[in-house]
Design goal:
The protein has helices spanning 2-13, 60-67, 95-102, 107-118, 125-141, 155-174, 180-198, 209-223, 232-248, 260-280, 288-294, 296-302, 324-327, 333-339, 420-426; strands at 70-71, 79-80, 352-355, 360-364, 378-382, 398-402, 405-408, 434-436, 446-453, 458-467, 470-480, 483-503, 509-512, 516-520, 526-532, 537-542, 544-545, 548-549, 551-555, 558-561, 563-582, 590-597, 600-607, 610-617, 623-631. It is α+β, with helices and mostly antiparallel strands. Among the domains are: 46-204, no CATH class; 352-588, Distorted Sandwich (Beta-galactosidase, Chain A, domain 5). Helix 8 packs antiparallel against helix 9 (232-248). It starts with a helix and ends with a strand. It is found in: Periplasm.
């Protein structure tokens, strides 16, 4: 096998971005009929030239558009670009568009279409267009120029471009489709890319970009060793990967950006690189496999029971099952269970998990049967400070999933472009937490409290001092499936306006009052009660613009209106005791009574004829006691 590859290469050689597009205007999404999904196109085979499988996928429609000079990049209107290209294109004046374009990733459509559509029919149009674009690129790249770090010389683009060119050139050479006049210029272009990636100024090792920048350098060394005969690129790439996995993946296995989306982004790339190393006999960094495997615990615990991820921090809609081929060989039954919504594997055993370094806690109800796996109640609580710009500063925010859906979601990401929209989606008012004086969180400690479980319950607490002179303590107690109690106690040095915010799922119909908010689904069935033990001023906002409130964004640059309900009090202190009742409890009468004695809060819950009594004591040592106190009738 190695001999064959060396012959192919001799013929050739003659020997997901942090920045993003300007968002669309905030609009209401119009539901569209659901269409049965079509099978994905069959990818091209992997080889030594392929680290990431994405370079072997393509769409015929996108390839056909490129034949007309039209570049189709997700999130944007189609762009008709000049032929030949100037390599200074920037039709939307946007970094993410430039990243994708200058990475040459759209050319994968032409490569795929040549082998899957054109070549079997004797049609060379896709190959010919691909070759002409490559000729245009290498001519430009060979000219002396001042580096354009916002365009073609953006380090993340260089990394993906190196991987794209490696994949394209080796595949074309292997099939005899690479013209002789391109072999030398392509090799020279790849050498320039390698030298750029080796330059420390182009290594972004403090966030997710660094992974692909190191992986691309390792790929170049493995496939084109003559470009750096002393092997220094390989040694540098391995050292960077080792440092990256130590710096960017915390000791508790969580990617440092505190974003489920970016966690899976790095995990998928790490698994792909791991597979490539095994497939090609390429050694990776010592400890790389262990660090990658350590990321699976968080991937398992953070995934909602329906197989989606929370829109926590800088995250967009994602179903990790899209990468099932990467996870299948791992033999991780708990991850298999959550990705399949209970169809395979076994349910996660832990019902309260704290990732202490990242400051995220997951609470789960007692495991249901497989048929009810999608309905399992699960909460995510943020009990740690933000770590990077991809973390949202919303201390002690929580997300609530139950009865088969995310009932109290995070508002999402929406945009990286600076402005009022980006500010809103990042700030505390767009999250399920308590906001003081209508202000964003400031700097200050956010610390986890105790993580506890009982026979049927799970508990997490935390404290934050992110507003001057104000201490916020939050305790979250998952009593059982579909029932949770949230206790917020705030103490301030002066008088403040406190507002506890709850963001409902898009499409909900909401009825609010001083002590009870009920959310109804699209069939007008009650699915969630938010019951307050102490009445306060209630406000229900829906798609407000000035200031923004009541918006939800699951896709980048797109937002829909949703209900944001707040309960407000004014004073030196504020106490909220809140019952979340979902599933079968949402359609039945409930009651909540509270007795507060110093640091002890006793909540008496009546739901579906059963009374539960919970006592939470904060000091001197935090304790929780839950008892079933017989039957009851709601007054």
């Amino acid at each position: 096998m190695r001999r064959r590859l060396s012959v192919v290469l001799a013929v050739l050689l003659g020997g997901t971005a942090c920045a993003a597009p300007p968002p669309e205007p905030l609009t209401v999404s119009i539901p569209v009929p659901q269409v049965a999904p079509t099978p994905p196109p069959r990818p091209l085979p992997l080889g030594v030239e392929s680290v990431y499988g994405l370079f072997n996928n393509g769409e015929q429609a996108d390839a056909d558009a490129l034949l007309r000079g039209v570049w189709r990049i997700n999130r944007y209107r189609d762009a008709a670009l000049p032929t030949p290209l100037t390599w200074r294109e920037d039709p939307y004046r946007d970094q993410y568009w430039r990243f994708v374009f200058y990475s040459l990733r759209p050319l994968s459509n032409l490569l795929w279409a040549h082998y899957r559509v054109g070549a079997p029919r004797g049609d060379t149009r896709y190959r010919d267009e691909l070759v002409e674009i490559l000729r245009s690129y290498v001519r430009f790249d060979a000219r002396p120029r001042v580096p354009d770090r916002k365009g073609i010389d953006y380090p993340h683009s260089i990394a993906f471009r190196a991987m794209a060119l490696t994949n394209i050139s080796v595949k074309l050479a292997r099939s005899g489709d690479l013209p002789a006049d391109l072999r030398g210029p392509l090799l020279a272009a790849l050498g320039r890319a390698g030298r750029a990636l080796a330059d420390p100024v182009n290594y972004e090792g403090n966030h997710n970009h660094g992974f692909s920048e190191a992986a691309a350098l390792l790929l170049l060394q493995r496939v084109f060793p003559q470009l750096e005969p002393d092997g220094s690129w390989g040694h540098l790439a391995r050292a960077r990967l080792a440092g990256f996995m130590t710096q960017i993946v915390d000791a508790d296995g969580v990617e440092i950006e505190k974003s489920p989306f970016y966690h899976f982004y790095v995990l998928d790339f790490a698994l792909a690189l791991q597979n490539w190393g095994r497939r090609t006999g390429t050694a990776l960094s010592p400890g790389f496999d262990d660090r990658t495997h350590g990321m699976l615990r968080y991937a398992t615990d953070i995934t909602w029971p329906d197989g989606s991820i929370p829109l926590f921090g800088s995250s967009v809609r994602l179903r990790p099952e899209r990468s099932a081929e990467l996870y299948a060989p791992l033999n991780h039954p708990e991850l298999a269970y959550v990705l399949s919504s209970g169809a395979a594997g076994r349910p996660p055993a832990a019902r309260a998990v704290l990732f202490r370094t990242s400051g995220q806690a997951v609470l789960r109800a007692v495991a249901p049967g497989r048929r009810d796996a999608r309905n399992r109640t699960q909460l995510l609580v943020d009990v740690g400070p933000p770590r990077t710009t991809h973390s949202h500063p919303a201390a002690l925010a929580l997300l609530y999933y139950s009865a088969g859906r995310e009932l109290l979601p995070d508002s999402g990401l929406y945009t990286y472009a600076k402005g009022s929209a980006a500010d809103y989606f990042r700030e505390a008012r767009a999250h399920n937490t308590v906001v003081v004086d209508g202000r964003p969180n400031g700097p200050g400690p956010v610390r986890a409290g105790r993580t506890l479980t009982g026979p049927t319950w799970a508990y997490q607490s935390g404290a934050a001092a992110v507003y001057p002179g104000v201490l916020h303590r939050r305790a979250v107690l998952l009593l059982r499936q579909d029932l949770a109690v949230v206790v917020d106690r705030l103490t301030g040095a002066g008088v403040h306006d406190y507002a506890q915010h709850w963001h409902l799922f898009p499409g909900a119909r909401v009825v609010s009052g001083p002590t009870l908010t009920t959310a109804y689904d699209q069939r007008d069935e009650p699915v969630l009660q938010i019951r307050q033990a102490i009445g306060s001023r209630v406000k229900d906002q829906f798609g407000e613009q000035r200031p923004m409130q009541g918006w939800h964004s699951a896709e980048y640059g797109k937002a829909v209106r949703n209900h944001a309900v707040s309960y407000s009090v004014t004073g030196r202190t504020a106490t909220y005791v809140t019952l979340l009742a979902s599933g079968r409890y949402a359609s039945r009468p409930t009651s909540l009574r509270t007795r507060i004695n110093g640091d002890a809060v006793r909540a008496s819950v009546c739901a579906d004829g059963v009374r539960l009594a919970a006592t939470i004591t904060a000091a001197p040592r935090e304790t929780v006691a839950v008892t079933t106190a017989g039957t009851c009738d709601v007054d």
